[in-house]
Amino acid sequence: MNRIGHKAARSTGVLILAAGQGTRMESSIPKILHPVGGRPIIYYVLRVANALKPAAIGVVVGHEAEEVKKAILQIAKDCGISRPLQFIEQKKQLGSGNAVLESVPFLKKFSSAMVLCGDTPLLTYESLASLHRGHEEHKAQATLLTARMGNPKGYGRIVRTATGDVLKIVEESVATPKEAAINEINSGAYCFEVAALLSGLSQIGAKGPKGEHFLTDILELVRTKGGRIIAHLSSNPEEALGINTRVQLAAAERIINRRMLERLMLSGVTVVDPSSTHVDADVEVGQDSIIEPFTILRGKTKVGSKCRVGPFCFIEDAQVGNECEVRTSQLRGCRVLEKCVIGPYSNIRPESVIGPRAKVGNFSEVKASRVGFGSKVPHLSYIGDTDIREDVNVGAGSITCNYDGKLKHKTTIEAKAFIGSGTMMVAPLRVGKGAVTGAGAVVTRDVPDGVTVVGVPAKPIVRGGGK
Fold it and tell me: Which of 23, 68, 107, 312 is the most buried (most CB within 10 A)?
């Protein structure tokens, strides 16, 4: 036994059709691997399928099969998908009916099966659980998810009987004027009794110049044998939107972004202007944080509570601690600890750790470095491959010269050191605890604790006025 929705159900499998090339995308990348909301299109379908808790998930692959398999296995690992996962290869792209026909050995294991399209990332758990529940309650042989659209152009129309049962699905290209006026459309999500599905698969014929088999043709065959077909009408028409072009990809991106922003706002985050803010699906933001306009949060970014981020920030795969302020800056693959101030116009690059209570200011860049507790890099500086300890002040225009043309070298600046404006620190180098460099110094040798160096090349000041 397995569970789909909230009730115990008979053995049910989920089959995802993901074999298509997606020629209208005009791309060498398989359609279902195009990113939307920071994740491949197929990610959302896999995630909702897993949430239904089926006995197993089958994925039909075809175009660039090995690349698609690799991506799906990585998604399964990232999302902790525990359902058994089986790949079925469609050797020739001969339509949705043929894809399901290739999956017969998988389908035979179950009493019912849910069939989903891999290019429908907007489907929700609530609708699919209701679809399955209605299928079971009405003891139907086939149940399909439908939606009513103001503009149904491009979709198959649902033709119903007088009693409300589904009579057939009519493709737009062959619809009569009366049928074309119907605004209820097919989403491409189905629930079948496997016995009825297998019987229909054996009888559907090939159509068109390519000799394709269409899954929708099974419905009429089921009905002619006395089977019952019902439709579950979604309350949210956007769920039915599939992705066949980059125009539709952009439309799905807007919808997923809106959903993510609504999730954040309902959890206690202020989004000042949702229309100019973009947040990927895996982003997390803590309570009472404020996201200012023209901010983009991508990848696995995590922002703590009581932060202010933006305006005009780009943050990707970064972690920002509680009570931080990040203004008009770019952060990638870094960690910013609590109560830090970043920006404006800072660039914090991967493998950097800032803070806590540190500051990286305007037009400063930090690469693969640590800026310790309470330390400041306020203006126009480059810090690369450097370990800055606590309470260090780096003067305006200072640079760690970490690259000799062949290798990168490390600089260490010990606690409470003071780096004068315009200091060039030529790595490998250690600036000692409490040491001072004069403005414009070029430091080529280690500076002992408590010593002040000045000049080019920098030399210690000798007490009494000499050098």
Answer: 68
Nearest to residue 296, comparing CAs of 244, 257, 335?
257
Residues 6+ apart with CB under 8 A from 34: 22, 25, 27, 40, 41, 243, 249
Annotated catalytic residue 138: no
H/E segment holding residue 220: helix 217-224
For residues 442 and 246, give the distance between their C-alpha atoms in angstroms, rounded to a whole number: 53
In this predicted structure, the answer to whether residue 5 has a pLDDT above a threshold of 50 is no
Q: What is the mean pLDDT of residues 232-242?
A: 91
CATH topology of domain 262-460: UDP N-Acetylglucosamine Acyltransferase; domain 1 (2.160.10)
**Of 219, 217, 148, 220, residue with least CA distance to 182:** 148
Instruction: State both tokens at 119.
Output: 């290019």
Domain ranges across the chain: 2-240, 262-460
Cis peptide upstream of residue 274 (ω within 30 degrees of 0): no
Q: What is the pLDDT of residue 235?
A: 87
Catalytic option among 6, 138, 213, 379: 379
Q: What is the largest CA-CA distance in the chain?
A: 108
pLDDT tens-digit readout, 66-90: 999 999 999 999 888 888 899 999 9
CA distances from 253 to 38, 312, 316, 424 (A): 9, 20, 17, 46
- pLDDT value, residue 106: 96
**Among 335, 431, 327, CA closest to 389:** 431
What's this model's pTM, rounded to 2 decimal places?
Answer: 0.90
